Amino acid sequence: MLKLRRALVVQAGSPEEPEQELLVELGGRAGAGRPRAAIADVALVGAAQAGDEVIVNVQALDLGLGSGGFDVVHVNLTRGLAGDGAPGASVMKLNYTSLQHTVTPVHDERLRADLERPVAVLALHGQLAAVAWAFAQAAPGLRLGYVQTEGGALPGGRSRVVRELRERGMLAGHLTAGAAYGGEGEAITTAAAIHHGLNSLEWDAALCGPGPGIVGAGAPLGHGGLAALDSAHVALALGCATLLVARMSSSDPRARHRGISHHTLTVLDLLLEPVTVALPAGMRSPVGAELRAGLGAVFGAATPARPGLELDVERPARITRHDWRRAPVDLPGFASSGLPARTMGRGLLEDPLFFAAALAGGSALAELAAHTSPAESPGEEPTRPGEEPAHRDISLRRTAPSAQTRAGGEGGQRGEAKLGA
């Protein structure tokens, strides 16, 4: 059930931010208790001022959640309950909840299933800055957009990283898809967001992943990172070159996340078709005995060759069928960029492999973007100003299996997957 309490705002931050930072005291009167951190989603509940009486959801702070250490304003009793809504909005987000609100969704009238431009799928929001920075270094001038999905925080205003990347010109736009809301454009589905970004907004590439924080229960299928499976399938279905940014760690206290995380391995195991996966240059294998020997690669060592992977997993054929690539990383350059570099409370020096894997993903995404045509699809006549693009028939097709898949099939399986251990 909802855990709501009456509170008094004793300190209010800038109302110009998408999420206003507050200090509140529970009980609805001054001196009733110790001040607690709270946030107000300004677009939903309006800005607050010191002295306002509010109702806050205290569930996350009472549970001690690391990524939700604050109360959330549910309604501001002082400022009133009436909102104007978005003019002309006709679609509901957070529908059938007490925070349902109308939006005007982005959409394209015609479906193109041959978008061809690349999409990088993130496992964690903490990868976003490193991927975007590496892409900008390797492909200056190309437009990279971000689609925020479910799996983490749903409010688009929660991410300071997105705002900073937009201010620096490293992101060309921010769309929120599905239950996520509050971006520069609202999409009903992840498919609609990717399609609109690449087709109508003319992004050269897209990043697709959850907002800050992640939901998880420690089970193979019980975590928000599994949203990457749906996002990757959508990108593949739209004809996009699809890259999965591996979640990796050299110092996570949980064994299931060291090397390459079981979150990433599960998605790679369950994907219906192969995708591209990037490793830091010089790293032969992200798991097993060779991981320690490969950690030096994250500090700049590179080998031009792409040797075969030796993955210590139960179903190697399901993992090695993907297109594994080595990509250069520049950890010192990213460190000096000033962009946020923390994951699960650890900084770049504490967990260099996490950020190196994300940087490799950004470099590989730039390589994929360089091999696609951002302006026209092959064989398509250019559209003149004022003209509607010609309707194109969509043929149903499947991507041809890789040579490795044809050769190995499923024959290399060794029992059932145990990736959630």
Structural description of this entry:
- By secondary structure, the chain is of the alpha/beta class.
- It has two domains: 73 residues; 255 residues.
- Helix content is 24%, strand content 21%.
- The strands form five sheets. The chain has an eight-stranded parallel sheet, sandwiched between helices. A five-stranded mixed barrel has the order 1-2-3-5-4. A two-stranded antiparallel ribbon has the order 6-7.
- Helix 3 crosses helix 11.
- The C terminus is likely disordered.
Number of strands: 19
Give the end-to-end Cα distance, rounded to a whole number of Å.
31 Å
Helix residue percentage? 10-25%
The side-by-side strand order for the widest beta sheet comes to: 11-10-9-12-8-13-16-17
Mean pLDDT: 81
Q: Which percent band covers the strand fraction?
A: 15-25%
Number of helices: 12
The biggest sheet amounts to: 8 strands, parallel
Q: How does the overall form come out from the CA principal axes?
A: globular
Catalogue the unreliable spans. 297-305, 375-421
Structural class: alpha/beta
The total domain count is 2
Please give the radius of gyration in angstroms: 23 Å
Question: What key phrases describe this protein's structure?
Answer:
globular; 2 domains; 8-stranded parallel sheet; 12 helices; 421 residues; 19 strands; disordered C terminus; alpha/beta; single chain; 5-stranded mixed β-barrel
Show the helix and strand layout:
Blueprint: E1 4-12, E2 19-26, E3 36-41, H1 42-45, E4 53-57, H2 59-63, E5 71-76, E6 91-93, E7 101-103, E8 116-121, H3 128-138, E9 144-149, H4 160-167, E10 173-177, E11 185-187, H5 190-200, E12 205-210, H6 227-237, E13 240-244, E14 248-249, E15 259-260, H7 262-270, E16 276-280, H8 290-294, H9 316-320, E17 323-327, H10 331-336, E18 342-343, E19 346-347, H11 352-370, H12 403-408
Parallel strand pairs: 3-5, 8-12, 8-13, 9-10, 9-12, 10-11, 13-16, 16-17
Antiparallel strand pairs: 1-2, 1-4, 2-3, 4-5, 6-7, 14-15, 18-19
Helix pairs in contact: 3-11
